[in-house]
Structure formats: structure tokens, C-alpha cells
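User: Here's a protein and a ligand (zinc ion). What would the complex look like?
Assistant: Let me lay out the input and then the predicted complex.
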Amino acid sequence: MILDLFICGPGYGETIICRWEEEGRLHAGVIDCYGPNYGLTVYDWLLELEISQLEFLCVTHPHLDHIYNAYWVLELLEGSVSQLWWWGGLTPDAYIVFCDKLAAACGGGEGRLRSRAESVRRLFIEIARQEQKFGIPLVRTSARIKQLYPIPQTTNPVLKITAFSPWDDSLMRFTKEVVSSIRVGGKATSDESLANLACIGLLLQYGNAQVVLGSDIEASNWNSLPDAFTSSLRPCVVKVSHHGSQNGTCAGMWSMSGFLCNQQPQSPIAVITPWHNVLPDEKVIKQIVGSGSTVFVTGQKNTNGRGRPWLSYVHVQVDGDQGTARVVEKSANVVVYEPVPPLS
Ligand SMILES: [Zn+2]
């Protein structure tokens, strides 16, 4: 049994597709969606991968690099997305007002914030429209540790997905900021990083294999994870959180005995998507390779120095029987950092 994971990060933005076979047909889901060209970049790629319907679309948090044009993709897949997962905490309307205020507070010249407000607003409008027309997507939010897939829960699911973030304190810190900016006279600050506190982190369990998708989770949410959860982690793949920033890690996480490695004979494959030219942080890459993991960084400059294509990805095949994973394909501008010390 094989689960295909396609982790795309062109230099700014992140889109993850997972695809597996169940009852003789392909199933698929998308985690975060950065879709330039009216979402066609993502939509056309899905069709190329023979995916025309989704079990779920997960938008982990309201940052442009994770939700840009997700509404267009939802519209292109009209009536074919079964579930929509988002971060919750407040109503969609509250986040629409917040994003609008944020865009206004930062001045008309901030195209990125305007796009963010627009992407959040139109996503929620599109969800409501399709819910009314087709009865789907089923909308779900996350909090603490919560099984999101499958629904209805079956005793022996092929793929089980559990959200492990956001946690109360972090989510409340973000929602408090949102609420205070919405109040009359309130003003949104330009501290965009607060939205990372609302991030949904996902654990995929596929047979004997585990995959951790870290979104842009920062230390406060990592530190909230209960021991019973972290001690059971044995991931063979980790999508490194927050584009490989130091904020995206917590103490000891990336070490042989840290909870992402847990003394496994084979440390997990680590994939990093970059953020502009700022992230990943070299120190984080060093920590990860030091734990015995191979690191794949997408979206690096091609040697010819020309622009970076949108489709810069790593294709990982996860073997559910063996509980292992291997990279079977990667774009030309993916840079690989070998483990230090190398595994024998
Ligand atoms: Zn991000």
C-alpha cells in the first residue's frame, strides 16, 4: 500500500497533495493551497495527477502563502470537495472583518495584505455557496488533538488523519488580537505572525507509516503537545514547520531522541518549503541533518539564474506496510542536504 505525497513550494507559498488508493479508486486531499493564475496552477496539477475530486481541502491558517486563491480551486472543483478543514476559534465573518482591517491598517499599497483579505473572504463565501448547493463540503475546525479523517470513523481506516494543533492558549492569543481589532475603534496591528498561532498540524497514519505535516506551527503549539502524543510519534516524513525557521522549532525537537526522531533506526525525510529569500534558516537545516535526516528544500534558484517555476516539489512515496518512505521524484531546483553524520 502506497501513499503519494507531493510537497510543493516554489519559493513563496505551499501546497501539499496526498493521494492513495482505496476500494479500487484514487482518493486525494490537499493541505494548504497556494494557487497563482486563478488557482489553475493547483487545479491543472491535480488533473495531471488524475485527481478530480478531493476527500478534503485543509487550509491550515490565514496566511497568503497557504490560502492564496484556495477559493478558486474550490470553485474549479465545484461539488467535488467532501470536507473543508480550517483553524476555527471565531466565526468566518470575524476573520473577514479582521483581514479587511489588517489590509486597511497597513495602507493601500500592501497588495499582499489585500490579497490575503480577499482570499479569506472569498473562501468562506465559496464554502457557504457550495454547502447550500451540494450539501458539501462538510466544514470542520481543529482544536487540541482531533481525528479529522475519515468521517464517519471506521474501525480500520486505510488513512487516518489527526490534527494536533492549535492549542487553547495559542489560538486564544490570536483570536484575542482579531477581536480587539474588530471592536469599534480597534485597529489591526501589522504583526502578521500571530496567525501562525492558529495553525493546524496534521498527523497522517497510513498503515504502519506516519507523516507529520507541520504547517507554520511555532514553539507554543509544539510545547503544548502531551507526552502521550509525542512519545507515540514515529514519522517517516516530516514537512518541516514554518519554512524552516527557528520559531518553527522547540527545544530538542530535532535530535535523535527528540520527538520527531524518537531514536528510530531511520530518521524521517524532512522537506522544507522556503519563504521568500529569508527562510529556511541555515541553523535549522544544520539541526535537522544533525539528527540523521536528509533535508529536501524546494524552490531554490535554478543554476541558470532565471525565475523559479511554480511547480517545485518533492514526490515522496510512503509505504504503509513497511512504515517507510522514499523520495521518488523531485524538481531540478530542489536542494538536498545529506545527514551529518551520515547514516551507516
Ligand atoms: Zn507559511
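Summary: The longest strand covers residues 15-22.
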